[in-house]
Amino acid sequence: MTDSDSYYLSLRPGLNIGPWRIRNYSTWNRNVNGDSADESWDSLYTYAQRNIIALKSQLTFGDSTAPSELFDSVPFRGAQLASDDDMLPDSLRGYAPVVRGIARTNAQVIIKQNGYTIYQSYVSPGAFEITDMYPTGSSGDLDVTIKEADGSEQHQTVAFASLPILQREGRLKYSVTSGQYRPYESDIDKKCLPRPP
């Protein structure tokens, strides 16, 4: 019977330089079985990233994945400029419809979904738009009540459905990626990728 030992080390070093964030993820493995030993050092990814505040986006160079709302993300090595919802206020993240109406007086607007109040605010006389409603995790039409100063009420229904690809009115979500496909398994033959003649 031979003695066997296994060693594992995981490193996630990082460095911040000005607006740039540099990150790496590396692992080391060593398996000893009697007189033989097998050792490997793998760098899973390395990238440099910074915020582009004016575009509410992230600029990334190095190893990353192309974002996808419906399908599996694609790993790549190259450059990417992608919008970042985390740079938006909570009230503008995710999808929520724009609720429009007309108030005859200084009125209170109450929005309910499935019987629960999800938004309440006051509006001035005239046409109004509500664009800062928080997204809800459930589906169901929105019941809008406009309570006028004289006690009268207006009611309307706004159709609502939440799908991963839906965006708020006027909101642009994008990702521009250029680079080479980066397989998760390092032993995958890169010859399967198309190459120029």
Automatic annotation (TrEMBL):
It is a multi-pass membrane protein. Its main location: membrane. GO terms for biological process: pilus assembly. Signal peptide: none annotated. InterPro entries: Fimb_usher, Fimbrial_membr_usher_CS. Keywords: Cell outer membrane, Fimbrium biogenesis, Membrane, Signal, Transmembrane, Transport. One of its GO terms (molecular function) is fimbrial usher porin activity. The keyword Signal applies. It holds the Pfam family Usher. Gene3D superfamilies: 2.60.40.3110. It is found in: Cell outer membrane. GO terms for cellular component: cell outer membrane. Belongs to the fimbrial export usher family. PANTHER family: FIMBRIAL USHER DOMAIN-CONTAINING PROTEIN YDET-RELATED, OUTER MEMBRANE USHER PROTEIN. This is Uncharacterized protein. It comes from Salmonella enterica subsp. enterica serovar Urbana str. R8-2977. The lineage of its organism: Bacteria, Pseudomonadati, Pseudomonadota, Gammaproteobacteria, Enterobacterales.
